[in-house]
Specification:
- It is a single chain.
- This protein has 283 residues and is of the alpha/beta class.
- It has helices at residues 11-18, 38-44, 55-59, 74-83, 101-112, 124-130, 159-167, 179-183, 216-225, 243-253, 265-269; strands at 8-9, 25-28, 51-52, 92-95, 118-121, 156-157, 172-175, 200-201, 208-209, 212-213, 234-237, 260-262.
- It has a 5-stranded parallel beta sheet. A 5-stranded parallel beta sheet has the order 6-12-11-7-8. It has a two-stranded antiparallel ribbon with strand order 9-10.
- Helix 5 (101-112) packs across helix 10.
- The protein starts with 7 loop residues before the first strand and ends in a 14-residue tail after the last helix.
Length: 283
């Protein structure tokens, strides 16, 4: 099992780090699928020294045939991270409004970009406030960073690779959307309902509660029940690659750092009308 020391940080521990001489770079990535903008929350109060980074426009590419939250252009991502003060090799901590999804996508994006020292504040901004720690409204002006984006730090699936994984009896592709969306009974966002043929359903609330993860052992057991077997490939997708990034983080906590993300997810899959769609219960 991989440890959690390089993946998650608790609020009290982070407060100590911030008070020391070389604090981590803090990125506030609060975001809502249907708005209002997370920047409004940031303006109302944030961790001291934190810089706001927008998930939609800075950590992802523009929506289109690759999905609603596709991979960012490496040069554009590098510019955004440098504006936020991210420095080569210097620790970063990301946090969101508490459900852990946007922060997990930020964590995934930085690690995909080759920046390994990044952790997620466990429980997000609410955990910080609940611990009675200070909140600031000043907007910092960080010195420009020097991080270099090098894509490929984490495994990625495109549509063809996701299809092959789902069809392979020696592998598992996890669809982590709610069961009715997986079964094709409802689809509130995308134009087609259903799932990738062969994918297994594991709704996100079954492995993370209120933005907090269970122990590595408990996560391993839950993923095993969904068909995740040691030594066999595993990938994840959701609606647009945000919730599934949290799945990848959970798989890291469960000892599977090889877990791959289908970034395009369902929104990218159904952008091509020729791709097959399955409905009903899983295999």
């Amino acid at each position: 099992m991989s440890g959690t020391d390089d993946l998650l940080v608790e609020a009290a521990e982070l407060a100590v780090e911030i008070g020391q001489g070389h604090p981590p770079t803090l990125l506030d990535v609060r975001w809502r699928l249907a708005g209002p903008p997370g920047r409004d929350d940031y303006t109302a109060g944030h961790l001291p020294g934190a810089v706001f980074v927008d998930l939609d426009t800075e950590l992802c590419g523009p929506p289109g045939s690759a999905g609603r939250h596709p991979l960012p252009d490496p040069a554009a991502l590098q510019a955004a991270l440098r504006r936020a003060g991210v420095r080569q090799g210097h620790p970063v901590v990301v946090y969101d409004g508490g459900d852990g999804m946007a922060a997990a996508r930020a964590w995934w994006t930085l690690r995909w970009a080759g920046h390994r020292p990044v952790r997620l504040l466990h429980g997000g901004f609410p955990a910080w406030v609940a611990a009675g720690l200070p909140v600031d409204t000043d907007v910092p002006a960080p010195a420009p960073g020097d991080v270099t984006v090098r894509p490929g730090g984490l495994p990625v699936l495109d549509a063809d690779a996701a299809a092959r994984l789902a069809a392979d009896d020696r592998a598992v592709l996890l669809d982590v959307r709610a069961a009715p969306r997986y079964r094709g009974e409802t689809e509130p966002i995308d134009p087609v309902a259903g799932h990738i043929p062969g994918a297994a359903n594991l709704p996100a609330p079954e492995y993370v509660t209120g933005g907090r993860f269970a122990s590595g052992t408990a996560l391993r057991d839950r993923f095993a029940a969904a068909g995740v077997i040691d030594g066999q490939p595993v990938g994840a997708y959701c609606g647009s690659g945000v919730t599934a990034a949290q799945t990848v983080l959970a798989l890291h906590l469960a000892g599977r750092p090889d877990a791959a993300l289908y970034v395009g997810s369902w929104s990218g899959w159904v952008a091509d009308p020729d791709r097959p769609v399955a409905t009903g219960a899983q295999r």
